[in-house]
Amino acid sequence: MRWTWGLLLFFVGQTVAYTIPALRFEYPTMRGFRASIPDTPGLQMFAFHARLNKPFDQFEEGDYTEDVTAPDGDGRWTFDTNKPALPNGTIIYYWVYVQFANEGYWLTDKKHTVTRTKATVAPKSTTTTTTTTVKPTTTTPPPCPPTLTTFNGGQPTCAGKLLFEDTFEQGSSFAPKWQHEVRIPLDTDSAEFVSYQSSPENSYIAAGRLVIVPTLVTQTADYTDERIRTGELTLAGCTSPTNNPYECQRKAARSTILPPVVSAKLNTKHFFRFRYGRVEIRAKLPKGDWIFPQLYLQPYENYYGYADYASGQMWIAHILANRMLAAADGRQIDGHRLRGGVLITNTGPVRSDFLRSNLNEEHFGDQFHVYGLVWTPEQILLTVDGFQYGALRTNFRQHAQQHNLTQANLWSADAPLAPFDREFYVSLGVGVGGVKDFPDHSLTGPSRTAKPWNNTSPKAEYFFYQNRNTWYRTWTEPELTVDYVRVYAL
Protein backbone atom coordinates (compact mmCIF):
# COMPACT_ATOMS: atom_id res chain seq x y z
CA MET A 1 0.00 0.00 0.00
CA ARG A 2 1.29 3.49 -0.76
CA TRP A 3 1.65 5.74 2.25
CA THR A 4 -0.39 8.90 2.23
CA TRP A 5 -0.32 10.23 5.74
CA GLY A 6 1.33 13.38 4.43
CA LEU A 7 -1.78 14.19 2.43
CA LEU A 8 -3.89 14.45 5.56
CA LEU A 9 -2.51 17.79 6.64
CA PHE A 10 -4.26 18.92 9.76
CA PHE A 11 -3.80 22.54 10.74
CA VAL A 12 -4.78 24.20 13.97
CA GLY A 13 -5.38 27.92 14.10
CA GLN A 14 -7.95 30.18 12.58
CA THR A 15 -11.11 28.37 11.49
CA VAL A 16 -12.24 30.00 8.26
CA ALA A 17 -14.76 27.51 6.85
CA TYR A 18 -14.50 26.45 3.22
CA THR A 19 -17.01 24.44 1.23
CA ILE A 20 -15.59 21.92 -1.23
CA PRO A 21 -17.76 22.16 -4.37
CA ALA A 22 -19.27 19.04 -5.89
CA LEU A 23 -16.74 17.48 -8.22
CA ARG A 24 -17.32 17.71 -11.94
CA PHE A 25 -16.64 14.44 -13.78
CA GLU A 26 -16.02 14.51 -17.55
CA TYR A 27 -15.05 11.98 -20.21
CA PRO A 28 -12.95 13.79 -22.86
CA THR A 29 -11.99 10.56 -24.67
CA MET A 30 -13.18 6.99 -24.88
CA ARG A 31 -10.78 6.08 -22.05
CA GLY A 32 -10.26 7.65 -18.66
CA PHE A 33 -11.98 10.52 -16.93
CA ARG A 34 -11.44 14.01 -15.59
CA ALA A 35 -12.41 15.25 -12.11
CA SER A 36 -12.20 18.90 -11.13
CA ILE A 37 -13.32 21.73 -8.88
CA PRO A 38 -13.41 25.45 -9.74
CA ASP A 39 -10.57 27.73 -8.72
CA THR A 40 -11.08 29.99 -5.72
CA PRO A 41 -8.63 32.55 -4.30
CA GLY A 42 -6.84 30.89 -1.41
CA LEU A 43 -6.80 27.37 -2.86
CA GLN A 44 -3.37 25.76 -2.46
CA MET A 45 -3.82 22.07 -3.30
CA PHE A 46 -6.43 19.66 -4.66
CA ALA A 47 -5.56 16.03 -3.85
CA PHE A 48 -7.69 13.43 -5.62
CA HIS A 49 -7.72 9.69 -4.89
CA ALA A 50 -9.91 7.18 -6.76
CA ARG A 51 -10.53 3.46 -7.19
CA LEU A 52 -12.81 1.63 -9.57
CA ASN A 53 -15.54 -0.57 -8.06
CA LYS A 54 -13.71 -0.87 -4.72
CA PRO A 55 -14.53 1.33 -1.71
CA PHE A 56 -11.81 2.84 0.48
CA ASP A 57 -11.40 1.60 4.05
CA GLN A 58 -10.02 4.98 5.13
CA PHE A 59 -7.51 7.49 3.79
CA GLU A 60 -5.69 5.05 1.54
CA GLU A 61 -3.78 5.91 -1.62
CA GLY A 62 -5.96 5.56 -4.70
CA ASP A 63 -5.17 3.68 -7.88
CA TYR A 64 -5.69 6.98 -9.70
CA THR A 65 -4.24 9.84 -7.70
CA GLU A 66 -2.50 13.19 -7.94
CA ASP A 67 -1.69 16.19 -5.78
CA VAL A 68 -2.73 19.09 -8.04
CA THR A 69 -0.91 22.25 -6.99
CA ALA A 70 -2.14 24.78 -9.55
CA PRO A 71 -5.30 25.44 -11.59
CA ASP A 72 -5.40 24.73 -15.32
CA GLY A 73 -6.00 27.24 -18.09
CA ASP A 74 -9.77 26.91 -17.69
CA GLY A 75 -9.71 28.06 -14.10
CA ARG A 76 -10.20 24.63 -12.57
CA TRP A 77 -8.14 22.33 -10.37
CA THR A 78 -8.14 19.18 -12.44
CA PHE A 79 -7.16 15.55 -12.13
CA ASP A 80 -6.95 13.92 -15.58
CA THR A 81 -6.21 10.33 -16.65
CA ASN A 82 -6.65 8.42 -19.89
CA LYS A 83 -5.73 5.00 -18.49
CA PRO A 84 -8.85 3.12 -17.39
CA ALA A 85 -11.58 1.83 -19.64
CA LEU A 86 -14.88 2.94 -18.07
CA PRO A 87 -18.01 1.14 -19.24
CA ASN A 88 -21.29 2.61 -18.09
CA GLY A 89 -22.11 1.58 -14.56
CA THR A 90 -18.50 1.68 -13.35
CA ILE A 91 -18.40 3.13 -9.85
CA ILE A 92 -15.57 5.58 -9.14
CA TYR A 93 -14.98 5.58 -5.39
CA TYR A 94 -13.00 8.63 -4.32
CA TRP A 95 -11.91 10.92 -1.55
CA VAL A 96 -10.61 14.46 -1.85
CA TYR A 97 -8.36 16.64 0.25
CA VAL A 98 -8.21 20.39 -0.35
CA GLN A 99 -5.81 22.84 1.25
CA PHE A 100 -7.34 26.30 1.44
CA ALA A 101 -5.75 29.28 3.22
CA ASN A 102 -3.41 26.93 5.10
CA GLU A 103 -6.34 24.88 6.38
CA GLY A 104 -7.24 21.29 5.46
CA TYR A 105 -10.67 20.17 4.17
CA TRP A 106 -11.77 16.86 2.69
CA LEU A 107 -14.61 14.83 1.23
CA THR A 108 -14.67 11.19 2.26
CA ASP A 109 -16.54 8.02 1.31
CA LYS A 110 -17.69 9.43 -2.03
CA LYS A 111 -18.62 7.63 -5.22
CA HIS A 112 -19.61 8.52 -8.75
CA THR A 113 -21.31 6.20 -11.24
CA VAL A 114 -20.14 6.46 -14.83
CA THR A 115 -22.91 7.34 -17.29
CA ARG A 116 -21.17 7.88 -20.57
CA THR A 117 -23.16 9.40 -23.46
CA LYS A 118 -22.12 11.01 -26.69
CA ALA A 119 -22.44 14.37 -25.03
CA THR A 120 -19.94 13.44 -22.31
CA VAL A 121 -17.18 12.47 -24.77
CA ALA A 122 -16.09 15.99 -25.55
CA PRO A 123 -12.95 18.16 -25.74
CA LYS A 124 -11.74 19.89 -22.62
CA SER A 125 -13.32 23.22 -23.53
CA THR A 126 -16.83 21.79 -23.49
CA THR A 127 -19.26 22.85 -20.82
CA THR A 128 -21.28 19.62 -21.04
CA THR A 129 -20.60 17.70 -17.85
CA THR A 130 -21.73 14.84 -15.71
CA THR A 131 -21.61 15.75 -12.04
CA THR A 132 -21.98 13.79 -8.86
CA THR A 133 -25.17 14.08 -6.89
CA VAL A 134 -23.24 14.57 -3.67
CA LYS A 135 -24.16 17.75 -1.88
CA PRO A 136 -21.30 20.14 -1.07
CA THR A 137 -19.77 19.38 2.28
CA THR A 138 -18.52 22.01 4.67
CA THR A 139 -15.89 20.98 7.19
CA THR A 140 -13.78 22.78 9.72
CA PRO A 141 -10.30 21.79 10.79
CA PRO A 142 -10.32 18.96 13.36
CA PRO A 143 -8.53 19.07 16.69
CA CYS A 144 -4.89 18.10 16.71
CA PRO A 145 -4.72 14.29 16.38
CA PRO A 146 -1.97 12.66 18.46
CA THR A 147 1.23 11.37 16.90
CA LEU A 148 4.48 9.78 18.06
CA THR A 149 6.42 12.23 15.90
CA THR A 150 8.45 14.90 17.68
CA PHE A 151 10.88 17.48 16.31
CA ASN A 152 13.60 19.96 17.31
CA GLY A 153 14.31 18.64 20.76
CA GLY A 154 11.10 16.75 21.46
CA GLN A 155 8.51 19.35 20.49
CA PRO A 156 5.06 17.76 19.97
CA THR A 157 3.05 18.11 16.78
CA CYS A 158 -0.15 16.88 15.10
CA ALA A 159 -0.66 13.73 13.06
CA GLY A 160 -0.17 14.30 9.35
CA LYS A 161 1.26 17.79 9.72
CA LEU A 162 3.87 19.04 7.27
CA LEU A 163 6.85 19.71 9.56
CA PHE A 164 9.51 20.72 7.06
CA GLU A 165 9.40 21.77 3.43
CA ASP A 166 11.83 23.33 1.00
CA THR A 167 10.87 23.86 -2.64
CA PHE A 168 13.95 26.04 -3.23
CA GLU A 169 11.95 29.03 -4.43
CA GLN A 170 13.64 31.48 -2.04
CA GLY A 171 16.27 32.67 -4.51
CA SER A 172 19.89 31.69 -4.05
CA SER A 173 20.06 31.50 -0.26
CA PHE A 174 20.54 28.22 1.61
CA ALA A 175 19.92 29.89 4.97
CA PRO A 176 18.35 29.34 7.36
CA LYS A 177 17.32 25.78 6.50
CA TRP A 178 20.58 24.34 5.19
CA GLN A 179 24.18 24.31 6.37
CA HIS A 180 27.15 23.17 4.29
CA GLU A 181 29.45 20.48 5.54
CA VAL A 182 33.06 21.57 5.10
CA ARG A 183 35.36 18.61 5.66
CA ILE A 184 37.40 15.74 4.20
CA PRO A 185 35.72 12.32 4.67
CA LEU A 186 37.45 9.81 6.94
CA ASP A 187 37.99 6.07 6.65
CA THR A 188 35.33 5.65 9.35
CA ASP A 189 32.78 6.54 6.66
CA SER A 190 33.35 5.71 3.00
CA ALA A 191 36.54 7.79 2.62
CA GLU A 192 35.11 9.37 -0.54
CA PHE A 193 37.73 10.87 -2.83
CA VAL A 194 36.40 14.39 -2.32
CA SER A 195 36.49 17.41 -0.09
CA TYR A 196 33.09 18.83 0.79
CA GLN A 197 33.09 22.60 0.47
CA SER A 198 30.64 25.49 0.16
CA SER A 199 31.81 26.68 -3.26
CA PRO A 200 29.02 28.14 -5.46
CA GLU A 201 30.32 25.99 -8.32
CA ASN A 202 29.41 22.86 -6.38
CA SER A 203 26.05 23.79 -4.85
CA TYR A 204 23.53 26.39 -5.93
CA ILE A 205 19.82 27.05 -6.31
CA ALA A 206 18.50 27.67 -9.83
CA ALA A 207 14.99 27.69 -11.30
CA GLY A 208 13.47 26.54 -8.03
CA ARG A 209 15.79 23.55 -7.61
CA LEU A 210 18.83 22.66 -5.57
CA VAL A 211 21.81 21.48 -7.62
CA ILE A 212 24.83 19.69 -6.16
CA VAL A 213 27.61 18.87 -8.63
CA PRO A 214 31.12 17.43 -8.16
CA THR A 215 34.04 19.02 -10.04
CA LEU A 216 37.69 18.19 -10.56
CA VAL A 217 39.93 20.13 -8.22
CA THR A 218 42.28 20.81 -11.16
CA GLN A 219 39.58 23.00 -12.70
CA THR A 220 40.70 25.59 -10.15
CA ALA A 221 43.76 27.53 -11.27
CA ASP A 222 45.47 27.08 -7.89
CA TYR A 223 45.52 23.30 -8.22
CA THR A 224 48.06 21.63 -10.48
CA ASP A 225 48.90 17.96 -10.76
CA GLU A 226 52.04 18.63 -8.73
CA ARG A 227 50.13 20.33 -5.91
CA ILE A 228 47.70 17.40 -5.65
CA ARG A 229 50.67 15.05 -5.18
CA THR A 230 52.84 17.23 -2.93
CA GLY A 231 50.75 20.16 -1.64
CA GLU A 232 48.57 20.86 1.38
CA LEU A 233 44.85 21.57 1.83
CA THR A 234 43.38 23.43 4.81
CA LEU A 235 39.61 23.92 4.89
CA ALA A 236 38.54 27.23 6.40
CA GLY A 237 35.34 26.92 8.42
CA CYS A 238 35.74 23.15 8.81
CA THR A 239 32.66 21.50 10.32
CA SER A 240 34.17 18.26 11.62
CA PRO A 241 31.60 16.94 14.13
CA THR A 242 34.39 15.59 16.36
CA ASN A 243 36.94 18.37 15.70
CA ASN A 244 39.16 15.80 14.03
CA PRO A 245 42.09 17.61 12.34
CA TYR A 246 42.21 14.96 9.61
CA GLU A 247 38.79 16.15 8.44
CA CYS A 248 40.03 19.74 8.20
CA GLN A 249 43.44 19.51 6.57
CA ARG A 250 45.62 17.16 4.56
CA LYS A 251 49.23 17.20 3.47
CA ALA A 252 50.07 15.17 0.37
CA ALA A 253 53.05 12.83 0.60
CA ARG A 254 53.99 9.50 -0.99
CA SER A 255 50.78 7.46 -1.44
CA THR A 256 48.59 10.23 0.02
CA ILE A 257 47.28 12.87 -2.36
CA LEU A 258 44.91 15.79 -1.88
CA PRO A 259 41.26 14.96 -2.63
CA PRO A 260 41.03 15.16 -6.45
CA VAL A 261 37.32 16.11 -6.47
CA VAL A 262 35.38 18.94 -4.81
CA SER A 263 31.73 18.35 -4.00
CA ALA A 264 29.06 19.59 -1.61
CA LYS A 265 26.93 18.18 1.17
CA LEU A 266 24.19 20.11 2.95
CA ASN A 267 22.09 19.34 6.01
CA THR A 268 19.30 20.66 8.22
CA LYS A 269 21.11 19.86 11.48
CA HIS A 270 20.87 23.35 12.97
CA PHE A 271 17.37 24.09 11.66
CA PHE A 272 15.30 20.92 11.70
CA ARG A 273 15.57 17.41 13.08
CA PHE A 274 12.87 14.92 14.03
CA ARG A 275 12.04 11.51 15.46
CA TYR A 276 9.63 9.32 13.49
CA GLY A 277 7.87 10.60 10.40
CA ARG A 278 7.66 10.38 6.64
CA VAL A 279 10.24 11.90 4.29
CA GLU A 280 9.60 12.66 0.64
CA ILE A 281 12.28 13.95 -1.77
CA ARG A 282 11.69 14.57 -5.45
CA ALA A 283 15.03 14.45 -7.19
CA LYS A 284 16.94 13.57 -10.33
CA LEU A 285 20.00 11.53 -9.42
CA PRO A 286 23.44 11.98 -11.06
CA LYS A 287 24.89 9.94 -13.90
CA GLY A 288 28.59 9.24 -14.37
CA ASP A 289 31.26 6.73 -13.38
CA TRP A 290 32.09 6.34 -9.67
CA ILE A 291 29.55 8.95 -8.46
CA PHE A 292 26.84 8.34 -5.85
CA PRO A 293 24.09 10.60 -4.44
CA GLN A 294 23.62 10.92 -0.69
CA LEU A 295 19.97 11.36 0.31
CA TYR A 296 20.33 10.49 3.97
CA LEU A 297 18.97 10.90 7.47
CA GLN A 298 21.82 11.34 9.94
CA PRO A 299 21.81 11.21 13.77
CA TYR A 300 21.58 14.63 15.39
CA GLU A 301 23.46 14.01 18.62
CA ASN A 302 25.31 10.74 17.87
CA TYR A 303 23.82 9.58 21.15
CA TYR A 304 25.22 6.06 20.88
CA GLY A 305 28.63 7.16 19.61
CA TYR A 306 30.21 8.47 16.42
CA ALA A 307 32.47 5.62 15.31
CA ASP A 308 31.33 2.72 13.10
CA TYR A 309 27.80 4.11 12.62
CA ALA A 310 27.02 3.36 16.26
CA SER A 311 24.21 5.94 16.08
CA GLY A 312 23.02 4.71 12.67
CA GLN A 313 22.39 6.27 9.28
CA MET A 314 19.28 6.02 7.08
CA TRP A 315 19.46 6.01 3.29
CA ILE A 316 16.45 7.52 1.55
CA ALA A 317 17.98 6.98 -1.89
CA HIS A 318 21.38 5.83 -3.13
CA ILE A 319 22.72 4.55 -6.45
CA LEU A 320 26.08 3.78 -7.99
CA ALA A 321 25.63 6.26 -10.81
CA ASN A 322 27.62 4.48 -13.56
CA ARG A 323 25.51 3.99 -16.66
CA MET A 324 26.70 0.38 -16.85
CA LEU A 325 28.37 -1.36 -13.91
CA ALA A 326 28.57 -5.07 -13.11
CA ALA A 327 29.97 -6.77 -10.03
CA ALA A 328 32.55 -9.51 -10.38
CA ASP A 329 29.77 -12.10 -10.27
CA GLY A 330 27.90 -10.38 -13.11
CA ARG A 331 25.19 -8.68 -11.00
CA GLN A 332 23.95 -5.35 -12.30
CA ILE A 333 24.84 -2.71 -9.69
CA ASP A 334 24.75 0.53 -11.71
CA GLY A 335 22.32 3.44 -11.72
CA HIS A 336 19.41 1.19 -12.66
CA ARG A 337 19.52 -0.24 -9.13
CA LEU A 338 18.14 1.95 -6.35
CA ARG A 339 19.20 1.24 -2.78
CA GLY A 340 17.72 2.42 0.50
CA GLY A 341 17.75 1.32 4.10
CA VAL A 342 19.97 1.75 7.14
CA LEU A 343 23.58 1.32 8.22
CA ILE A 344 24.47 0.09 11.70
CA THR A 345 28.13 -0.63 10.98
CA ASN A 346 30.85 0.14 8.47
CA THR A 347 32.26 -3.37 8.74
CA GLY A 348 32.40 -5.88 5.89
CA PRO A 349 29.28 -7.53 4.51
CA VAL A 350 27.22 -6.59 7.59
CA ARG A 351 27.32 -3.01 6.32
CA SER A 352 24.78 -3.85 3.61
CA ASP A 353 22.57 -6.24 5.60
CA PHE A 354 19.81 -3.67 5.89
CA LEU A 355 19.97 -2.11 2.44
CA ARG A 356 17.10 -2.96 0.10
CA SER A 357 17.13 -2.47 -3.67
CA ASN A 358 14.79 -1.91 -6.60
CA LEU A 359 15.81 -2.45 -10.23
CA ASN A 360 14.49 -0.12 -12.93
CA GLU A 361 14.59 -0.40 -16.71
CA GLU A 362 15.74 3.22 -16.86
CA HIS A 363 18.69 4.77 -15.05
CA PHE A 364 17.43 6.60 -11.97
CA GLY A 365 19.26 9.65 -13.29
CA ASP A 366 17.16 9.78 -16.46
CA GLN A 367 14.25 11.61 -14.85
CA PHE A 368 12.86 12.86 -11.56
CA HIS A 369 11.49 10.37 -9.05
CA VAL A 370 9.95 10.78 -5.61
CA TYR A 371 12.01 8.93 -3.01
CA GLY A 372 10.34 8.20 0.30
CA LEU A 373 11.11 6.80 3.74
CA VAL A 374 8.54 6.10 6.47
CA TRP A 375 10.02 5.79 9.96
CA THR A 376 7.97 4.47 12.87
CA PRO A 377 9.00 2.93 16.22
CA GLU A 378 8.39 -0.52 14.74
CA GLN A 379 9.58 -0.32 11.13
CA ILE A 380 11.26 1.63 8.34
CA LEU A 381 9.63 1.53 4.90
CA LEU A 382 11.24 2.53 1.59
CA THR A 383 9.34 3.85 -1.42
CA VAL A 384 9.95 5.23 -4.89
CA ASP A 385 7.13 7.03 -6.71
CA GLY A 386 4.75 5.67 -4.08
CA PHE A 387 5.81 2.04 -4.63
CA GLN A 388 7.07 0.31 -1.49
CA TYR A 389 10.15 -1.76 -2.32
CA GLY A 390 11.58 -2.41 1.12
CA ALA A 391 10.58 -2.85 4.76
CA LEU A 392 12.84 -3.20 7.81
CA ARG A 393 11.31 -4.64 10.96
CA THR A 394 14.41 -6.33 12.42
CA ASN A 395 15.61 -5.99 15.99
CA PHE A 396 18.90 -4.27 15.16
CA ARG A 397 20.35 -4.88 18.61
CA GLN A 398 19.96 -8.65 18.32
CA HIS A 399 21.40 -8.64 14.80
CA ALA A 400 24.39 -6.58 15.91
CA GLN A 401 25.04 -8.87 18.89
CA GLN A 402 25.01 -11.90 16.59
CA HIS A 403 27.76 -10.25 14.55
CA ASN A 404 29.78 -9.13 17.60
CA LEU A 405 29.30 -5.41 17.02
CA THR A 406 30.32 -3.61 20.20
CA GLN A 407 27.81 -0.78 19.67
CA ALA A 408 24.95 -3.23 20.26
CA ASN A 409 25.64 -3.04 23.99
CA LEU A 410 24.79 0.68 23.92
CA TRP A 411 21.38 0.28 22.30
CA SER A 412 18.28 0.04 24.40
CA ALA A 413 16.79 -3.43 24.70
CA ASP A 414 13.36 -1.82 24.98
CA ALA A 415 13.58 -0.13 21.57
CA PRO A 416 13.72 -2.74 18.77
CA LEU A 417 14.69 -0.09 16.22
CA ALA A 418 17.55 1.37 18.28
CA PRO A 419 19.76 3.17 17.30
CA PHE A 420 16.92 4.62 15.21
CA ASP A 421 15.02 5.93 18.21
CA ARG A 422 16.64 9.38 18.48
CA GLU A 423 16.33 12.55 16.40
CA PHE A 424 17.76 12.58 12.85
CA TYR A 425 18.23 15.37 10.32
CA VAL A 426 18.12 15.51 6.50
CA SER A 427 21.40 15.42 4.56
CA LEU A 428 21.87 15.86 0.80
CA GLY A 429 25.14 15.47 -1.08
CA VAL A 430 27.14 13.85 -3.86
CA GLY A 431 30.07 11.55 -3.17
CA VAL A 432 32.69 10.17 -5.54
CA GLY A 433 34.74 6.99 -5.26
CA GLY A 434 35.63 5.84 -1.77
CA VAL A 435 36.48 2.45 -0.33
CA LYS A 436 33.09 1.04 0.66
CA ASP A 437 30.40 1.37 -1.99
CA PHE A 438 32.02 0.27 -5.26
CA PRO A 439 32.98 -3.44 -5.12
CA ASP A 440 36.47 -4.45 -6.16
CA HIS A 441 36.79 -6.09 -9.59
CA SER A 442 33.60 -4.45 -10.84
CA LEU A 443 33.45 -3.60 -14.56
CA THR A 444 32.06 -0.36 -16.00
CA GLY A 445 30.77 0.72 -19.38
CA PRO A 446 30.09 -1.23 -22.57
CA SER A 447 33.81 -2.01 -22.83
CA ARG A 448 33.71 -3.52 -19.31
CA THR A 449 36.61 -1.45 -18.03
CA ALA A 450 37.94 -2.58 -14.66
CA LYS A 451 37.51 -0.37 -11.62
CA PRO A 452 40.84 1.50 -11.37
CA TRP A 453 41.46 1.12 -7.63
CA ASN A 454 41.31 -1.53 -4.94
CA ASN A 455 39.41 -0.69 -1.76
CA THR A 456 42.14 -2.05 0.50
CA SER A 457 45.00 -0.27 -1.27
CA PRO A 458 46.69 2.63 0.55
CA LYS A 459 46.99 4.26 -2.90
CA ALA A 460 43.29 3.85 -3.80
CA GLU A 461 42.69 7.58 -4.19
CA TYR A 462 45.87 8.00 -6.22
CA PHE A 463 44.95 5.20 -8.67
CA PHE A 464 41.47 6.70 -9.02
CA TYR A 465 42.99 10.10 -9.84
CA GLN A 466 45.43 8.60 -12.34
CA ASN A 467 42.46 7.18 -14.28
CA ARG A 468 40.64 10.55 -14.51
CA ASN A 469 40.95 10.84 -18.29
CA THR A 470 38.76 7.74 -18.56
CA TRP A 471 36.04 8.30 -15.96
CA TYR A 472 35.74 12.07 -16.27
CA ARG A 473 34.52 11.68 -19.87
CA THR A 474 31.40 9.98 -18.50
CA TRP A 475 30.50 12.96 -16.28
CA THR A 476 28.04 14.53 -18.70
CA GLU A 477 25.27 14.71 -16.06
CA PRO A 478 27.05 14.46 -12.70
CA GLU A 479 24.68 16.68 -10.73
CA LEU A 480 22.07 15.80 -8.12
CA THR A 481 19.01 18.00 -8.74
CA VAL A 482 16.43 18.28 -5.95
CA ASP A 483 12.97 19.65 -6.63
CA TYR A 484 11.62 19.51 -3.08
CA VAL A 485 12.14 18.01 0.36
CA ARG A 486 9.20 17.38 2.71
CA VAL A 487 8.88 15.78 6.13
CA TYR A 488 5.49 14.89 7.60
CA ALA A 489 4.42 13.75 11.04
CA LEU A 490 3.00 10.24 11.23
Automatic annotation (TrEMBL):
<dbReference type="InterPro" id="IPR031756">
    <property type="entry name" value="BGBP_N"/>
</dbReference>
<dbReference type="InterPro" id="IPR035806">
    <property type="entry name" value="GH16_GRP_C"/>
</dbReference>
<keyword id="KW-0732">Signal</keyword>
<comment type="similarity">
    <text>Belongs to the insect beta-1,3-glucan binding protein family.</text>
</comment>
<dbReference type="InterPro" id="IPR043030">
    <property type="entry name" value="BGBP_N_sf"/>
</dbReference>
<dbReference type="GO" id="GO:0045088">
    <property type="term" value="P:regulation of innate immune response"/>
</dbReference>
<dbReference type="Pfam" id="PF15886">
    <property type="entry name" value="CBM39"/>
</dbReference>
<dbReference type="GO" id="GO:0005615">
    <property type="term" value="C:extracellular space"/>
</dbReference>
<protein>
    <submittedName>
        <fullName>3-glucan binding protein</fullName>
    </submittedName>
</protein>
<dbReference type="GO" id="GO:0005576">
    <property type="term" value="C:extracellular region"/>
</dbReference>
<dbReference type="InterPro" id="IPR050546">
    <property type="entry name" value="Glycosyl_Hydrlase_16"/>
</dbReference>
<feature type="region of interest" description="Disordered">
    <location>
        <begin position="125"/>
        <end position="145"/>
    </location>
</feature>
<keyword id="KW-0391">Immunity</keyword>
<feature type="compositionally biased region" description="Low complexity">
    <location>
        <begin position="125"/>
        <end position="138"/>
    </location>
</feature>
<keyword id="KW-0399">Innate immunity</keyword>
<keyword id="KW-0325">Glycoprotein</keyword>
<feature type="domain" description="CBM39">
    <location>
        <begin position="18"/>
        <end position="119"/>
    </location>
</feature>
<dbReference type="GO" id="GO:0038187">
    <property type="term" value="F:pattern recognition receptor activity"/>
</dbReference>
<dbReference type="GO" id="GO:0004553">
    <property type="term" value="F:hydrolase activity, hydrolyzing O-glycosyl compounds"/>
</dbReference>
<dbReference type="InterPro" id="IPR000757">
    <property type="entry name" value="Beta-glucanase-like"/>
</dbReference>
<feature type="domain" description="GH16">
    <location>
        <begin position="135"/>
        <end position="490"/>
    </location>
</feature>
<dbReference type="GO" id="GO:0005975">
    <property type="term" value="P:carbohydrate metabolic process"/>
</dbReference>
<dbReference type="GO" id="GO:0030246">
    <property type="term" value="F:carbohydrate binding"/>
</dbReference>
<dbReference type="InterPro" id="IPR013320">
    <property type="entry name" value="ConA-like_dom_sf"/>
</dbReference>
<feature type="signal peptide">
    <location>
        <begin position="1"/>
        <end position="17"/>
    </location>
</feature>
<dbReference type="GO" id="GO:0045087">
    <property type="term" value="P:innate immune response"/>
</dbReference>
